[in-house]
Fold these 4 entries.
Entry 1:
Amino acid sequence: MVEFCVEHKIINLQVIANHLNPKAPIAEIKRKKAILDNYGLKVYILGATRTSMDKGENRKLFEFAKMMGIKLIIVEPGDFRILDNLEELVKEYDIRVAIHNHGIKSTYGSPLTVRNLIIHRDPRIDVCLDVGWVVSVRFDAGKVFKDYKGQVFDIRLKDKKVNNTPNEDVATPSGIGEGDCNFKGLFVALRDATYRGGSGDRDGSVPWAIPRSLWWMRWSSLRLTTSPTLLERWPKVISEALVIGASPIRNAERGHWGRDRGAFLGLIQRR
């Protein structure tokens, strides 16, 4: 992971527990942070990560975020009541929390549910908009983004192809730009909002997917918005953010990718 980031001049990372485990021993966390610091890499976003009804357990996440300099924790609480103690911790630590959505059958699958949950809460509790899951139920990603009225602070740029079956729609992950997402509408909405949040992407788990998706997003952002590219206009909008295999930081010293597939690594902002 570290080698890849250095090669592609990426400095701000979005990671999950496969890369940095908030519950690991302090010595292990400090060891991995030292590796990141040595290469000038910063963890900007953590998650999605598990939360608890136990405020003490959730406090550990915020202590970890404070130690690492993390600005945003992405969550998908199993109980709405968890948001109460998360809000208290947001106010105490001044670290943002964003609610992540999965499919329509999941707790936060409906954008209306998420909007109603956060509308009267601290403004630092906002939304992680997973475009792939939005597309999977045939919502328009650009419209969903606009309907949140500035409450989206993180976007998972993914694409899916949705097919009809006798029982229900079936959504299959696809390469960016190869599925049913209306990226034109989304990019225009991002441009009009001068969106400056974070963004991550998952596009397979092989290295060749990285330049393909990066090329497509650069080309389409220029072509579809008829303006300077998103990358130039909004420095924290996605530059590269792909699954590159589960390459935990522990593999950095050995200089190889790691073999586990499917772990999410979001990479934002080129130098």
Entry 2:
Amino acid sequence: MKKFFRNLFSGYLLILILLLIEAGFLLFIQYGLDDVVNKWIGGDASENLLKLLVAFGYILVRLIGFVISVIIFFKIINKPENPEFKIPWIVGMLLLPFFFSMIFLIFGRHKLMRKEKRIIKATDTAYKNEFYLNDKKKEALGNAVGTFAYLNNTTNMGAHQNNQITYYKKGEDFFPALIEELKKAEELIFMEFFIISDGVYWKEIRQILIDKAEAGVEVRLIYDDMGCGGTIASNTPRVLRKHGVKCYKFHPFRPILSGVYNNRDHRKIVIIDHKIAFTGGMNLS
């Protein structure tokens, strides 16, 4: 019940209503626009200049929509992907060409922006230079070098030496260890989570992040806005930034139909001083 009221008054309900209005508008253009225009214009549109202009604009809009639909239809057919993903789009385009054209423009394109491509390229280059499988590493890996070379080529995951790994089976074991290491941080704390819930552990960790940031440690936190919808206060980034924590929402939920909402951040990562890392399937509560 607490989560329901938090969602109700946090703006998510308003955003949902606006998204439904946008979807309804697209359906209206597909289904209802013809009847509305015909009833308003009535008999001979040439008798009234305004009606004539409306009729001309309506025909122009339909013509542009038809051209866009044809272009998108052939774009879907020629996309280099599995036909199983194409068939629903093709069927939709045949039944509701304008509506599915708009939906495709919103959700059907998955290209990265130029800025994102530059960031990925720079990151990839830096990673390969740091974790390149050189002769020294090949010698240390011995008979396992072939396996690591395969993983390196197919997943871009480099070989690491001198590591120690601890497996935490339950949250009761994981969170105390995480809190202990966070308290030891001297240079950097980076945290990335899909869900952060306003529970006992989060309250303690939030205070640690604030204390460390005020002490000069670089503290960064990113969490998924949809995953944390209603689980923590919507003003969390603003509150933490006041204390020096660089906190951001991943793909903030806004009242605009966008395919970006399907791209969520399911990572659960903590990095401390570039020496200690935590990862797995546990979110933060």
Entry 3:
Amino acid sequence: MSFLVLLVAVLLSEWLGTQPAIQRDQWFFHWRRWLAGLSFLMERPRVSRALVLLVPAFILALLLHFCGNWLFGLSAVAINLLVLLYAFGRDTVDDSIDLYRDVLARGDVQAAWHEAAQLGVEDADSWPELHNRAQAAVAYLCFERYFPVLFWFLLLGAPGALFYRLVSLLASAEKSEDSAVVSRQLLWVLEWLPLRLLGPVLAMVGNFPATMRAWRESLFGVAESSAQVLAGMVRGALLVEPSPSPAEGALEVDALRALFRRALIFTVGLIALLELL
């Protein structure tokens, strides 16, 4: 049943694209602000953060427990499907990736600096550095859209997938440096194992020796961020040039997205095989 829900969710996400009717995050930020306004939590930021993240996942677990058998189990299928579609990454980032790729294809390096900023890339000192960091940002966005969500869904069910997405939203929304560090550390922990499992998958669908070499170097690493570890494996999988021209950079973005599509297909097929064993 879990694999069927997972497969349908991935197919719907790939076929229909963005789901603005489902991926509405306002409720989460309203919930966060309401908790932050409670007097007894104002001096307890860790307790507030734990409640922000755990209560929605706990309510979802209770909903599945008490309502999952309604309509011969179809209610559980519907709930899991909706939660997975919600937990997948936001397609709005695809627009930024497309714009960055298009300006590279035109050879407009000046515009590429602006579009790279939309991907979170700032303070680069040169065009090669800008592109390398933009490529790392694109790779991370491709990774976090599906792979950690699928991992935690298979391990902990829909509450696990929801918890990961809420941590990701919180990490990107918190303005206080101390709070943001804590949320990003939690996000790093949640991504550590899915990222290490993705390495051999990227090797199977990309350049095997170079990817596995980068994977072994970061296998037990704890100092690098998820984006840095992923960037190393992607460079190995694609054998990218250290200083590409803008036109070559556009082709690299296309190749990178194709790499993650192949990785997604391989991952879903591997899960199907494990389900049959």
Entry 4:
Amino acid sequence: MEEKGEITVYGSSMAKKIAGMFNAFNEIWPGGFTGGIPYDENRVHDMLDKTSAIVDLIAVDPEENPIGYCGLYPHWRDKNAAHISILGVHPKVIGQKFGKRLLLKALEVAKEKGIFRVDLHTWSGNMEAMPLYKKIGLFWVPETSVYMQDYIPGILQNPLAKEWFEKHPDWYSCFQRKLKQAPDKEINDGMEVFTYDFEVGEDKLSMEVDRYGWGFSGIERILDGNKISIKSRLESHHIVMGIENSLSFTIENISESDVELKLAVVPFKGLKWLEDFPSSIIIEKGETVSNR
């Protein structure tokens, strides 16, 4: 079915119409959107004309009336991430998938800008939106109310994943996810992770995120009958200053040729490695290599 309307980038000429849209948000926003002071053209200019936004996205209907907004802004404490400042649609278009289209466009922009992760905060009563958030790759961080992280931009930039998505470019349709309206607590080999699974026929891709490290801890790719798996594991997620811990890698190559991987392990301030990691490693076809 053909989608109506489009997603575009904010321009100052839109300000007057956007003021009307923001005022309409009051009908559905907990506690009201405007703070008791209706938006006018000047207030929109003040809000959107001179900001630090990566992009301010506007959904417009076929008559070019603004009906949705999504702001993508730099993260306040992670230079590799961005966050959704506001996401909202006009009450008259609720259920018409403009929120989904705005979020997908925000993730696309994040990927193009080299951003690894996109965050979103919502409120615990916003359960109606939770299936949408989770289907586009957001994970509800446990013990929060409600802080969500989306690693899709980073996945789409990963070299091994990029080869998979060259064959299967529609990641949204390939994404396999149980849409539970609850925090996403998953423990794998003693580590708390978020797992992204993609599948088309016999081709599969699984990306694992260390939710404390904010980075990938594992990837398993099956493409055209060839399988490669890389998994990193900490002895313990409970890291204490001055106490030794260990990091291990397991690499499996079930393919028709040898694979050379380059390893770049960069310690953060205060972390010292007792042994050096090899700069590269060759895994012969059919071989599994473990390094601790």
